[in-house]
Amino acid sequence: MKQALIDIGSNSMRLTVYELGNDDFKVLFKQKYMAGLAGYVEDGRLTGPGILKACSGLSEFRNTLNSLGIQNTKVFATASLRNISNTEETVHFIEGATGYPIEVISGREEAALGYYGAMLDHDISDGAYIDIGGASTEVVTYSNGNLEHSASFPVGSLYLFKNCVKKILPGLGSFDRMEKELHLRIDEEGNFPFTHKEKILCTGGTSRALMKTARNYFNLSSDCNSMSREQLEEICAFFVKGRTPVRDLILKTEPERIHTLIPGTMILQHVVERLDADEIVIGKYGVREGYLCQRLMHQK
């Protein structure tokens, strides 16, 4: 059976089509729509243009699914619709305009589902999981394969860009503002309930974009999916220097994330420092696969 999943994120909306077996799945097709919904939030509310942007993305996905003859579709939203004050009316409008029922999952649900999805492709029994989104960051720690702590922090790559960066690429003042915001949103508000972990497993568009950029910067092999803490710190130092080399590197590797890659990398570096981690591994699966297996395939 073919099953489509649509994830309404704060930075991007993603459609993934799966072929479901008895106890496994295969990814058949992926499509991305860069909605940037976090950029349409004003005074805590998603504005009319932002709501229409989400509708436009769902309509584009519907056209794709209709052309493929796929009817089984589930839609869920994360911080994009969770962390706004007009969630109920926004969901009601989008559902009426598109015909898609939308499930808004909580931060802790997102963290747990993301962790479950990430573990489908990795056998790491002790460590931490992090998913950096546009408006929130989910962190999970686990030991002996069991979840220890999970938390969702109200700060993401697009959130940092919108609130701390004045131009496309951040200057020194922007980096200072981002560091203060990370301290406020993660260290103080979240009361970071985690202990030291040597290895961090990362999923999400920011992590994949950073890994692609790191491969280019360090001349790593195309199948490399991990970096050391020292490499992360080196590429962060390179980003802080700014100017033309930074712009050219991002434009060459991830041009559509030129405004959010550096803020997202700052979030990752902040969490890595707090966990005193040594290695960062980029995972293939995340919250969508966790949702697929636990909510639709009922795997435990």
TrEMBL record:
Q: Which SUPFAM superfamilies match?
A: Actin-like ATPase domain (SSF53067)
**Which residues does the UniProt record annotate as the domain Ppx/GppA phosphatase N-terminal?**
17-296
- A Pfam family matched by this chain, by name? Ppx-GppA
By sequence similarity, the record places it as follows: Belongs to the GppA/Ppx family.
Q: What is the name attached to this protein's record?
A: Ppx/GppA phosphatase N-terminal domain-containing protein
